[in-house]
């Protein structure tokens, strides 16, 4: 009995078959990773988002349930968005070092 191992993730051939590289270039993703300004823009965006969440929670009153829900929503979006921007900046940094 032979087991066939399946590896998760995308291989380069799968990416080519799906046409993801051409779509990425069409949207300007590949050229953006080589732009030197992209790294600082992403880092600045992550910093702004990380500051926005706590600031919004501090400045908005909690008098009504809608205000509390808005605080939670903005805090969640700023944490997720800031984390995504920071992770993307690290990925762009790796791509730029390879160049």
Describe it.
This protein is mainly alpha-helical and 99 residues long. It has a domain at 30-98. The chain contains five helices and no strands. The protein has helices at residues 12-18, 20-26, 29-34, 36-59, 65-98. Helix 4 packs antiparallel against helix 5 (65-98). The model has no long low-confidence stretch (mean pLDDT 85). The chain crosses the membrane at residues 41-60, 72-95. Keywords: Membrane, Transmembrane, Transmembrane helix. Pfam families: DUF1118.
Question: SSE layout and pairings?
Answer:
Blueprint: H1 12-18, H2 20-26, H3 29-34, H4 36-59, H5 65-98
Helix share of residues?
over 70%
Average pLDDT confidence is 85
Q: Write down the secondary-structure element order.
A: HHHHH
- How large a portion of the residues is in β-strands, by DSSP E? under 5%
């Amino acid at each position: 009995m032979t087991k066939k191992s399946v590896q998760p993730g995308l291989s380069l051939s799968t990416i080519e078959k799906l046409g993801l590289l051409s779509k990425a270039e069409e949207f300007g993703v590949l050229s953006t990773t080589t732009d030197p300004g992209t790294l600082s823009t992403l880092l600045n965006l992550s910093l702004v988002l990380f500051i926005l969440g706590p600031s919004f929670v501090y400045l908005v009153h909690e008098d009504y349930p809608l205000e509390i829900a808005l605080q939670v929503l903005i805090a969640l979006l700023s944490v997720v968005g800031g984390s995504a921007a920071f992770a993307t900046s690290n990925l762009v940094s790796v791509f730029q070092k390879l160049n």
